Automatic annotation (TrEMBL):
CDD domains: Ig_LP_like (cd05877), Link_domain_HAPLN_module_1 (cd03518), Link_domain_HAPLN_module_2 (cd03519). This is Hyaluronan and proteoglycan link protein 3. Keywords: Disulfide bond, Extracellular matrix, Hyaluronic acid, Immunoglobulin domain, Repeat, Secreted, Signal. Belongs to the HAPLN family. It is found in: Secreted, Extracellular space, Extracellular matrix. It comes from Diceros bicornis minor (South-central black rhinoceros). Its main location: secreted. Disulfide bonds join 196-217, 295-316. PANTHER family: AGGRECAN/VERSICAN PROTEOGLYCAN, HYALURONAN AND PROTEOGLYCAN LINK PROTEIN 3. Residues 25-148 form the Ig-like domain. Pfam families: V-set, Xlink. GO terms for molecular function: hyaluronic acid binding.
Length: 344
């Protein structure tokens, strides 16, 4: 008897088992279940609604509809458990965790089981799996969702290489951002990001992007690229971090004020203007996507002083566009204005 071959009886003449070759994956009773999803990455922005397409069919086509169970989940990016998003059986749907109340199944067409996510958040980007379960058979497909945003390096106020992985994650969140993925850092490098200090990424690796090779940044002999220290211990090792801020729903602006402010006065001034002091991620997003351009340094929520330059010019920093930083000045100094953020 052939090992692994399911038997369906015995030949009475030869007295040997009759075996049926195993069916290919996804085939049952001569019918194949097929799940179709787009191969290209889907792009959207924070606060938007997006639909992740998923359709299924049978080969050959079935005349009579069959009950199926649908499961959507988000794949892990950094060793964390996979996240259940939505499960549906017939008209009954259940969503989970941070997705509760923000997702539902679109079934506008026959055998469509697309996932709609409302009010996208920075942490929603990643790979999603759509699984269709028909009895004992199941098939699935993957789709990747990417948010439009900007990657920026971030340091602790006390200087470089002060953050464990978990502290780095919290630091990005405090700046209205998330820890960047390698794909996001690589895309930022392709767009010109050049930074010599190594920083944590979402997978707990430590890397840094170099567009212009130089001696202090790995040496002159290495080609430009994203340099890697590899995975690091999440609690023992300390580095900077690369954060990812998604495009804004609100507005960042420099508050016109008759005099310079201390950090506490800056916070109060924004509140009096029906706004709040801007975070670093918000300033970077406004510079990247709204073209915010101002040559005046202003306080931000983390106690740093920065200013965004979309159109470089004399007496306004370097000749490259970017967000300039004065580090973390004494919060009692009255040498800066303030950047405020007003949600929409």
């Amino acid at each position: 008897m052939k090992v692994g071959c399911p038997c369906r009886g015995t030949d009475v003449l030869q007295q040997v088992p009759i075996c049926t070759p195993p069916l290919p994956p996804g085939v049952f009773n001569g019918v194949k279940l097929v799940v179709e999803m787009p191969e290209e990455t889907l792009f959207s922005h924070r606060g938007a609604n997006v639909t992740l397409p998923c359709h299924y069919r049978y080969e050959p086509a079935l005349v009579t509809p069959r009950p199926v169970r649908i499961k959507w989940w988000k794949l892990s990016e950094n060793g964390a458990p996979e996240q259940d998003v939505l499960v549906a059986i017939g008209l009954r749907h259940r969503s989970f965790g941070d997705y509760r109340g923000r997702v539902h199944l679109r079934q506008d067409r026959e055998r469509e089981v697309s996932l709609e996510i409302r009010d996208l958040r920075p942490e929603d980007y990643g790979r999603y799996r759509c699984e269709v379960i028909d009895g004992l058979e199941d098939e699935s497909g993957l789709v990747e969702l990417e948010l439009r945003g900007v990657v920026f390096p971030y340091q602790h106020p006390q200087g470089r290489y002060q953050l464990t992985f978990h502290e780095a994650k919290r630091a990005c969140e405090e700046q209205d951002a998330v820890v960047a993925s390698f794909e996001q850092l690589f895309r930022a490098w392709q767009e010109g990001l050049d930074w010599c200090n190594a920083g944590w990424l979402q997978d707990a690796s430590v890397q840094y992007p170099i567009t212009l090779a130089r001696r202090p940044c790995g040496g002159l002999g290495l080609a430009p690229g994203v340099r890697s220290y590899g995975p690091r211990h999440r609690r023992l090792h300390r580095y900077d971090v690369f954060c990812f801020a998604a495009a804004l729903k609100g507005r960042v602006y420099y508050l016109e004020h008759p005099e310079k402010l201390t950090l506490a006065e800056a916070r109060e001034a924004c509140l009096e203007d029906d706004a709040q002091i801007a975070k670093v991620g918000q300033l970077f997003a406004a510079w990247k996507f709204r073209g915010l351009d101002r040559c005046d340094a202003g306080w931000l929520a983390d106690g740093s002083a920065r200013y965004p330059v979309a159109h470089p010019r004399p007496n306004c920093g370097s000749l490259e566009p970017g967000v300039r930083s004065f580090g973390f000045p004494d919060p009692q100094r009255r040498e800066y204005g303030v950047y405020c953020y007003r949600p929409r």
